[in-house]
Structure to design on (574 residues):
């Protein structure tokens, strides 16, 4: 998204902004073909004058576009070769996701890099799953208008970390690296029972072009970090010490040590990582939350307690991933009679297809359980593993609040007395909603051990909920079209006091991006995505050399771009 300049010749500095939303799409072209905005933003200056600016969506590129002789949205195998069909044409993703627009020291003036995720690729001609990918684009800015243009693009090489599988959300860290996600954590128990038929084996056979390979599920389901140098070189790592799960967006807190997780699974947990050192996520302590319910209204509310899962380094857990099987960590059975007789614990996680299983951690394997089987071990220790599709998360530093999306408040978030645990007992809201987290410093775990962080979530409550309709409206929407439905990505503008919310909904005929002012409580629809497409890839760039951008992508229609017309709220441009 493109910034309106607040330079020294403007009347005065900006005091506030207000978004004026657009109607839901009406024409067939709006519904099916366009990613567009008809919203506007009103800027109020400190001297009382106001200025209204229209918003418009500016497309940077679409997957399949040829940029400097290279095709956007392609993926590579382990040898660094673009993966192609038998006719030589490349596989191209239609699922762009997260974007990190960054300024890297040493680049020419008004030149930047953009990392973009592609969550999935078409399967290859043999039915094997192609690896996901990230691309690195070189971006030029027109300083007069703020317009961005991509002048080069290339896929990022992940061969040093066994490739990347379904990179979903992510963020730009305070230390200017890209922190992504792998939204796939293949079931190691099922893999061990039948490795030749497992998805991870098929994935790795394809990625390494090796029909004899046996896959390793413990290589996937981690947080990747990408560092970019001024020449466009990239260094990638996977943070094994942050646990293994279907990551959505992790959020680094202002201490540069504490990281809060959104996990896109059902059922799933909430997690917190406290690194040993600032700006270094290679070693730390992992915790899982316990939901202690206090209310059911407006999405529900709860106090949050924390359970320590363990401490580890990336190197330690990567070594375990190389050599460990599921049966080395757990004894497991689906036989309730056997489980009861032999003292197993019942758990229910997404890893076992949401079915109950009976498990017992083998002696000395607690660390492996914590970091390679994070959800199973969290449930084993009594943490709450009942959230349904916990998605994006961002932090409001002034108010010491965070916002996290729950895409669908249903399934394991409803009361179920037959479940192994039933901490969350809420009314069904299929349209989901955004929750607010409150924080306190230096809390203790449930067993009395100090958590060395100033950013421990202690309360969670509904903030902005969707509304299910009893019958579809005239356009086919099954959730109120003037409220959010199935929120996915969220980012917060500290300067504009605005939470931006992107949908991945089957309740709205088109998905939208919304602006929600946390002070005035005003909700405004600011962008519409073509039918079938998910609104995703949000990044708020508050001040990039005098311009402000909200990056926004669409999966399936395949757009990567930004909203033009956002006000610049930082210091005056020099």
């Amino acid at each position: 998204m493109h910034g309106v300049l607040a330079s020294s010749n403007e009347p005065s500095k900006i005091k506030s902004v207000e978004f004026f939303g657009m109607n839901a799409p009406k024409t067939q072209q709006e519904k099916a073909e366009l990613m567009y905005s008809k919203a506007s933003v009103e800027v109020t200056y400190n001297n009382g004058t106001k200025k209204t600016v229209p918003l418009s969506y500016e497309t940077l590129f679409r997957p399949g576009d040829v940029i400097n002789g290279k095709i956007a949205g392609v993926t590579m195998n382990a040898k660094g070769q673009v993966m192609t069909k038998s006719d030589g044409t490349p596989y191209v993703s239609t699922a762009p996701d997260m974007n990190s627009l960054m300024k890297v020291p040493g680049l020419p003036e008004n030149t930047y890099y953009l990392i973009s995720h592609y969550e999935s690729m078409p399967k290859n001609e043999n039915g094997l799953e192609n690896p996901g990918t990230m691309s690195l684009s070189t971006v030029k800015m027109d300083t007069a208008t703020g317009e961005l243009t991509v002048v080069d693009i290339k896929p990022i090489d992940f061969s040093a970390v066994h490739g990347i599988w379904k990179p979903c959300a992510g963020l730009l860290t305070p230390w200017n690296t890209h922190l992504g996600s792998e939204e796939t954590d293949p079931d190691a128990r099922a893999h061990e029972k039948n490795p030749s038929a497992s998805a991870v084996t098929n994935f790795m056979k394809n990625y390494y072009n090796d029909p004899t390979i046996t896959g390793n599920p413990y290589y996937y389901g981690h947080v990747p970090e990408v560092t970019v140098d001024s020449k466009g070189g990239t260094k990638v790592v996977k943070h094994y010490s942050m646990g293994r799960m279907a990551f959505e967006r992790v959020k680094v807190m202002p201490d540069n040590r504490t990281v809060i997780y959104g996990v896109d699974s059902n059922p799933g947990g909430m997690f917190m990582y406290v690194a040993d050192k600032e700006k270094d996520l290679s070693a730390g302590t992992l915790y899982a939350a316990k939901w202690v319910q206090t209310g059911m209204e407006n999405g529900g509310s709860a106090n949050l307690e924390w359970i320590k899962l363990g401490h580890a380094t990336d190197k330690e857990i990567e070594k375990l991933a190389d050599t460990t099987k599921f049966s080395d960590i757990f004894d497991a059975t689906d036989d309730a009679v056997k489980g009861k007789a032999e003292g197993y614990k019942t758990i229910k996680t997404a890893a076992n297809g949401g079915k109950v299983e009976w498990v017992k951690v083998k002696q000395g394997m607690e660390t492996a359980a914590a970091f390679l089987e994070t959800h199973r071990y969290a449930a084993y220790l009594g943490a709450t593993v009942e959230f349904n599709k916990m998605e994006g998360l961002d932090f409001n530093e002034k108010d010491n609040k965070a916002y996290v999306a729950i895409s669908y408040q249903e399934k394991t978030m409803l009361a179920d007395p037959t479940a192994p645990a039933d901490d969350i007992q809420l009314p069904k809201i299929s349209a989901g909603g955004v929750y607010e987290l409150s924080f306190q410093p230096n809390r203790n775990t449930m067993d009395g051990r100090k958590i060395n962080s100033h950013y421990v979530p202690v309360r969670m409550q509904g903030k902005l909920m969707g509304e299910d309709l009893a019958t579809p409206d005239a356009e086919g929407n099954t959730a109120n079209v003037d409220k959010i439905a199935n929120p996915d990505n969220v980012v917060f503008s500290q300067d504009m006091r605005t939470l931006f919310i992107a949908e991945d909904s089957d309740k709205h005929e088109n998905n939208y991006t919304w602006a929600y002012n946390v002070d005035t409580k005003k909700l405004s629809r600011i962008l519409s995505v073509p039918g079938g497409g998910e609104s995703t890839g949000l990044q708020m760039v508050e001040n990039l050399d005098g311009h402000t951008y909200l990056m926004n992508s669409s999966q399936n229609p395949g757009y990567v771009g930004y909203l033009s017309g956002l006000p610049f709220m930082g210091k005056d441009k020099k």
Remarks:
- The longest strand covers residues 280-295.
- The longest helix spans residues 199-208.
- The chain has a mean pLDDT of 94.
- The CA atoms of residues 224 and 238 lie 4 Å apart.
